[in-house]
Amino acid sequence: MDFEFSSDAIMLRDMLRRFVEDEAKPLEMKYFSSGGLEENERARLRTVIEQMGLWGITVPEKFGGGGLDLVTACLLEEELGKTFLPMEIGDVPPLLYACQGEQIEKFLNPALAGRRHPLLAAREPNAFKPENWKTTATPEGQAYILNGKKLLSAMPSGQDFIIVLAMAPAGISAFMLEPNQDGIRIVKNGGAALQLEQCRTESSFLLGECGQALNLGVETAPGACIRLGARHVGLSDRLLDMAAGYAKSWVALGALLKERPAVQRMLAEVKVQIESTRWLVYHAAWLTDKQGPSRLLAAEVRLAVGEMLSNATNLTTMIYGGPGPSPQVEVHRYVQSAIPMEALEFGLDCARIVIAAELLAAGDGGEP
Questions:
Q1: What is the pTM assigned to this prediction?
Q2: Taking 70 as the threshold, does the pLDDT of residue 1 lie above it?
């Protein structure tokens, strides 16, 4: 592996880094205080990204994107992770690439162009794991009736659409819904709660085959997981900078926090963990570019990055005065906006299962 990034990759990274510093970070406090950005602000950010030539640069070429290599894509994701503002550069959830027929023009193409934004509704208030989901999709002729409650990361705007994962008789299925259609109620609650009450949707809005939602996007999912890992490396870097800055300026019991050996030790340990995890991410990206996607590599990244982000969150929260990941400390709220803690824990469990299965199947001719 060549540890030196190409000059083009560095140029793209530096351009996006300036954008994050000059355009995204100044809007963070408004985003958290008001619960979102105005449509004109979102449009302006997207326009700047388009003017830089970065919109759609990570989308596969067969869908009209730039088909950027995974290593360079990770460089960009790491920069995007350094702002708490939800930022995109034209990519979409991998399962959306399963759109067919009229779905392509109604959902996929507008999403890739930035005219519409897909919100994934997978999590449930008291049941994150799919086997415990209570949201149902009941067949009725050429339609499905959806009932249940899902969580969204943000309130949808008029141009957004929602991808709902629900339990149908054949298994977990994905449906694309409009926020304003009958049977849908959206309640603002930190992020947003989606309530489905006898919501009728035609079978033409079913994404892929019924019962196969968890298999959608399997080819692109490992790369997407590695890219998400890079974004969380950037997020952890931001948290560490915040923790170090606070420790240098805050006085407690007559001394600066930075003078306490326990604080110094925690800062040093998280710094080393971030750096080692960063290179695990880029090595996985490099191998994926060379050899193709790997569930094992993606799981290793997911596990290492999840533990790193959890440690960085705990450190920053404690330095800011909380007893660990506490909702009363603003840092915790910032991280929750990027990745809910229950989602992080579920991802860690999934990664451990994949890695253990691979290890236990090795050498005995078995399949994980």
A1: 0.83
A2: no
